[in-house]
Amino acid sequence: MIVVAADRSDHAGEVVEEAAALGEMAGEPLHVVHVLTRGEFLDIQRASTEDTGKPVEIDRVRALAKEQAQRAIDGAGIENAEPVGLMGEPGEAVAEYAEEHDARYVVAGYRRRSPAGKVVFGSVAQKILRESARPVVMIGGR
To answer: Please, which residues bridge with residue 106 across strands?
Structure first.
């Protein structure tokens, strides 16, 4: 299996598309993972409590993350991928998911910044590189 970390960026579809090509070459299925952070979770809870007087159930929050993963899949224009919604710290959650599911590769994107910043990945990309026991493929933004 290929595990792809998908964020909310415009670059997410491109990362999923590249991961799908890798999965096709390796004969591996694709799992596209979006992780809602603790801060995003708290924002959702706060909004729900203000609107309805009730907190959102944890399964609904995971479903929202899964919907974001599906948007990245749709943005890539591919059909054979499994969307996955998780909660937690994105780098750790993606690495843990890959380990638990015996992934062959983890694919993540990073954004290019300034000339000096090109050498340094974003914090989530760095965390995936450090945390993952699986080979990691990084896809740079254009």
So the answer is: 3, 136
